[in-house]
Amino acid sequence: MKRIFTQAFTLLLGCGLLASCATNPYAATNKSHKKQAKAYAKSLLAIPAAPTGEHTYPQGDYWVGTTNFNLRKPNFVIIHHTAQNSTEHTLKTFTMPSTKVSSHYVIGRDGKVYQMLHDHMRAWHGGNSRWGSNTDLNSSSIGIELDNNGSEPFPEPMINSLIAVLGKLKKEHGIPAENFIGHADIAPARKVDPSPLFPWKTLADNGFGLWYDEDVLEKEQVLREVAVGGEGDQTPLLVLETVPKYTLPENFNPMDALRIIGYDVRNPEAAVRAFKIHFIQNDINSPLTEDEKLILYNLYQKYL
């Protein structure tokens, strides 16, 4: 039992030791980080106190700590862009208590990765959000911020590092492919990040997030029999026609599909916009076209 608590203490203490503070400009805030980690470790090591006041109840004769437990593990990864102009600006923002915002990782344009919090700790990156029935994404996710102002492409070194980080997280925590999503996905009425310039398909090709099948919008040629000639003297004729390879079911409801995928559809326009930011990546403020509905239907089937 002592060994288990020691491991928990070591993990929390290690949150403050992710990087050396010897020549670190953030030595002061790292010290504060370490102090908070120690406080959490102390709380975990303490025997739970008996309740007082109106919510008291009979206590057992002694405290019995189970040997069957572990740390909570993340089940989602939420990708953001910083909407700031430098990695340094973001690091400073995330080390100011007054901002009340943070993430587990920050990745610079040059591909350098700053891990600011242990994966098992709760960062403040999702805000008021929802995905499916999950309304507290901060408690079940890892947040990754990309140094990007929201109107620029995402450089190759950054994406290469992101894919490496995602690979590590997927392997270590067993995060399902479909649970790699964006901030706009979980907060469609508030957020638009990462922007439509983000290469979601590249991530999906590497196993992080889902993407629609490439042939979903393809056309195919079919032979149809048509009647030619006047009334009473018609002759059947085979005509080669080009038609969509796939069609929508008559009862297809886009809002139901978005909801089943995970989107919060209480604001339908916002849900459609978030979907288009992620999967269409142009004309994001317009209603769904018929082709876009086909893409949505194709993706919806992957979530059933």
TrEMBL record:
**Domain N-acetylmuramoyl-L-alanine amidase, which positions?**
64-195
**Entry annotated with the keyword Signal:** yes
Pull one GO CC term from this UniProt entry: outer membrane
Range of residues in the leader sequence: 1-27
Per the UniProt record, which EC number(s) apply here? 3.5.1.28
Q: A Gene Ontology biological process annotation?
A: peptidoglycan turnover
Q: Which reaction does it catalyse?
A: Hydrolyzes the link between N-acetylmuramoyl residues and L-amino acid residues in certain cell-wall glycopeptides
Identify this protein by name.
N-acetylmuramoyl-L-alanine amidase
Entry keyword annotation includes Manganese: no
SMART domains the record matches: Ami_2
Q: Which Pfam families match?
A: Amidase_2
| Keywords noted in UniProt | Cell wall biogenesis/degradation, Hydrolase, Signal
Name the InterPro entries on file. Answer: Amidase/PGRP_sf (IPR036505), Amidase_domain (IPR002502), NAMLAA_amidase_2 (IPR051206), PGBD-like_sf (IPR036365)
Query: GO MF terms on file?
Result: N-acetylmuramoyl-L-alanine amidase activity
